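Risk register update: the risk of archive-format incompatibility is retired. Evidence:
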Amino acid sequence: MKQLFLARREWLLLAIIGAIALAVAARAPVFLSWRNGMDIANDSAILAILVVGQMGVLLTRGIDLSVASNLALTGMVCALVGRAMPGVPIGVLLLLAMAIGALLGSLNGWLITRFDLPPIVVTLGTLSAFRGAIFVASKGAWISDHQIHAAIKGLPRAQWLGLPALVWFALLVLALAAVFFKLRREGRELYALGGDPHAAQYVGIPVKSRLMLVYTLSGMLAGLSGLLWVGRYSVAYTELAAGYELTVIAACLIGGVSIGGGVGSVVGAGLGVLFIGVVNAALPVIQVSPFWQQAIAGAVILVSVTLNARAEHRGGRLILERTELKGAAA
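Archived output:
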C-alpha cells in the first residue's frame, strides 16, 4: 500500500515538474533548451548530494540540521589547506573533505547514541558550534577567488563526456544510494528502524550502529559538498550556505521522504531536488519576486507532510503479516 502510494506520488511529482516546465516554456521557449537544463542540473547537483545524506537520517526518524554548517566548515578547512599548500593534489583534498565531514557527522551520531539525546537538539547545537569553528579557523576573514586552490576551482567547472562534473558527482551519489537503500542489508534495516525502533531492536537490528552510520554518511556527503561548493563559487566565509539545511529538508519532504521515518525513496528524493531546481529557475523567467520562493517552498512542504501523514494513517504500520498474527493468536 505504502509502496503504491510512493510510486503514484513520484509520477504525480514528475507530472507537476513537467507541467511547470511547459507552462514557463510557453512564455520563454529557451527554458526547455539543453543548455538551460544543464544549468538547472548543475545548480541542483550539490543539493542532490546533501539530500541523499539527509534522507538516510530522516528514515531513522532523525534530522540533521548541521549539514550546511558542516559544509561550510569543511569547505573553509579545505580552502585554508589549499592556500597553504598549493601543490596538494585534488584527490587528497577530496579525501580530506570527506574525512572531515564524516568526523563531524560521527560527532552528531555519538552524542545522539551515547547520551540518548534528541537529534534535533544535538544537530541544532552542532550547527552553531561548527559556525563558530569556521570563525576561529579563518579568524573571521574570507578566502577569496585568487586564494582558492586552482584544483578546487577547476573540479566543479570541468566537463566529462559532455556533462558538468557536478552532475556526474550527483548521479554517482544517487546511484550508490539507490543500491544501498534497496539492496544492502544495512539500508533495508534503516526502513525497519524508522518504522518501529522498538521492534527493530527486538529483532536484532543494531540500532546505535545504524544511527552512527547515517549521521556519519550525512556528514561525509556534506564534507564533499563543501569542497564542491567552495570550488564552484570560489569563496569561503563564515556564513557560507547559511540556512541551506532547510532547502535540503524541503527537497526530501517534497520527494516523499517522511519525517516520521521509514518511508522514502532515492527516486522521490531526486525528484524533490528537481522540483526545487525547476521552480527556482522558473520564477525569474516569469518575473516572480525571489521573496516568494520561500513562501512557495513552505506551502509545498506543508502539502507534502500532509500527504505523507494521510498515507501513513491509511496504510498503518505492520510489523508482522496478518497470517503470522493469526498463527500467533492460535
